[in-house]
Amino acid sequence: GKHVNTPNRIGQVPGIEVGDEFQYKAELRVVGLHFRTMSGIDYVEVEGVKLATSIVSSERYDFDDKFDADVVIYTGEGGNVINKEKKAEDQKMIKGNLALANSMRHKREVRVIRGDERWDGKGKHYVYAGLYLVDKYWLEKGVSGKSVYKFKLCRIPGQPPLT
Amino acid sequence: GKHVNTPNRIGQVPGIEVGDEFQYKAELRVVGLHFRTMSGIDYVEVEGVKLATSIVSSERYDFDDKFDADVVIYTGEGGNVINKEKKAEDQKMIKGNLALANSMRHKREVRVIRGDERWDGKGKHYVYAGLYLVDKYWLEKGVSGKSVYKFKLCRIPGQPPLT
DNA sequence: TAGACGTAGA
DNA sequence: TCTACGTCTA
């Protein structure tokens, strides 16, 4: 029962290639791709500035992420749309959302992991899609009527294609 | 990202020895010790009879399990003491509780995994304690005032000692 | 202490 | 759909 304790950092992870697949979010942690168990946006704080390291897309709930050839529209975090016992709220420019905004400003790479339904219909599986840059973000009204952040990320050219 | 898909079954797991440690409950699944992500009691159904395969002890909540040299007093499942938004209820002789009762009747071995607080204070770690037999069980009033099952399990002699 | 894009099985 | 002895960070 040994775990690889790779320090969390921005950019490529040694030994991980585009298209690598994983069955559980816990595996993403073990290999160093994404360290937060349940959050979709992972980040580090460098000299007081939060910078995103990775995002994990999921197809559950109202997270209406869009995957195009080289573009991802990623929904920000917060607002408690998940827990049905709590009322939805406007998302705030804090934590992971702030980190993604900072990554845009500072032009830092973000690892993108795509979560899909698993073949057996139980849970999901995760595919490493490569490095992206945040191109822009905006605020829009979500299904609940509350404000939701949307982040447009563009895939950095020169990476192996996603089959 | 490969997982060992050992079929769930009763008794010893090849390659696993008393004292083996694991950092996450997800690892217990990978190695074949315990397949349920969040439940403490795992079981199979053989010819219509539920039989326990393994239990995982945890020190959280009100699960007042007792670990002695060769005896475990294990608290049954159910009653929703965990989710604070729901009221506590009497535990029922169903699912995992029923499986443990059946394992007593049929004298089937049960794997015991002990969960402890981790050295870094974050989460727990898990130690395989070996094979046990259910010796008896009873119903008592828990902290909430509701009925809680208690199972007494005795360690089968001849196994390596727990350090 | 509570929040967060978790998981599998009944 | 809901439950279940989850797990980490802020």
Automatic annotation (TrEMBL), chains A, B:
In which compartments does the protein localize?
A: Chromosome, Centromere; Nucleus
UniProt-recorded Gene Ontology molecular function terms: double-stranded DNA binding; histone methyltransferase activity
All copies of the YDG domain together span 11-155
Taken from the UniProt entry, a GO cellular component term is:
nucleus
- Assigned keywords, A-Z: Nucleus
Its name, as the record gives it, is: YDG domain-containing protein
Q: Which organism is it from?
A: Brassica oleracea var. oleracea
